[in-house]
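Readers of this paper often ask what the protein records in our data store actually look like. Such a record has a labelled line for the sequence and another for the backbone structure tokens. Nothing more is needed to write down the fold, since each code stands for a local backbone conformation. The remainder of this section carries one protein's record, kept here as part of the documentation.
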Amino acid sequence: MQLDECTVIDLTQLLPGAYATQLFADLGATVLKVEPPAGDPLRSVPLVQPEDGVFDGLSRGKRSVVLDLKSEEGKRALYDLVADADVVIEGFRPGVASRLGADEETLRSIAPDLVYCSLSGFGQSGPYRDRPGHDLTFAGLSGLVDLSRRSTDERPTPPPFSVSDIGGGLFAAFSIVTALLSRERTGDGSYIDVSMLDVLISFSQSYAPSALAGNDPRPPEPFTGMYPCYDVYETADGQYVTLAAVEPQFWDRFCELVDRPDLREKHCSPDPAVRDALRETLADIFATRSQSAWLDAADEETTIAPVNSLEEALESPHARERELVVDGRIGFPARTDPPVEPATDGPPALGEHTREVLVAAGYSEAEIDALVDAR
């Protein structure tokens, strides 16, 4: 799973593209982060403070090259880099890449086997393509925000994670790797158009059939609180645990654990009154012990788990053993053989590698000086 010989030119800004190309950097690819003279806004976006470490966590092992693509010198330098690249990923609004001379047609005329990915909120076509948006925009349009409430009487709330940004970046990376594999077999490059809204809508697999049938897919549904065997319960110390006893064998094991064999027959009852009474019974049962006592009582065949804070999740034995946190940042989220060695080099300073990269591309010091002075 190493991509040591792969060069990715990253023309994106902010979170979605940064996440996609961080996955490539962790897999050993050379990621050239081409930034405008002012830098990626993620370095200083108002809602994300530098001390939050968001830019740092998504820029490990990348190389920063500052090019002004509005200048002819900047365009020429980009073209020279593209000639030896495998992938270009851009995150501009539709039409901007073309105005900058960095569109798929132009760059694939230089490198016909190039894998070119456009990552945007609404994609390159459709009625919304020219609209601006952020994660919450796409979450709202996709139905996710509406599904965050159990009824229309409740106020919708924003998702706690930037799920469309991360989902879009992840799907872009997946699509690019697929295109690279195809190129190995056919020799042909590819164009990929990823819409973050499309990706988020595709995440609705468990709700879509109900919605398409004309039914209200809003919770409670089987996996969002309809059944007491699959819900969240408060413990005696004010903490919470999850119970996910969907399969009969897990429900039977739970009934054994709490010494309530009489509850077995009420598992996934179609009768709402039975379910309501069972939920009250389970709430009373869980309120008899602290969270830690429940976790101590649970065994490997009991689907009881704590509701962790994010800090607890990051510091858990699972996260430590799986090496999910590397040098205070989230690492590559998969185990492989041979293993992936996540990039550990710190984030690049703005333009830190401009000279080094251009020298490798055949530029003289005088040419680099002229390019830098032209910014």
User: Anything to note?
Assistant: The mean pLDDT is 88.
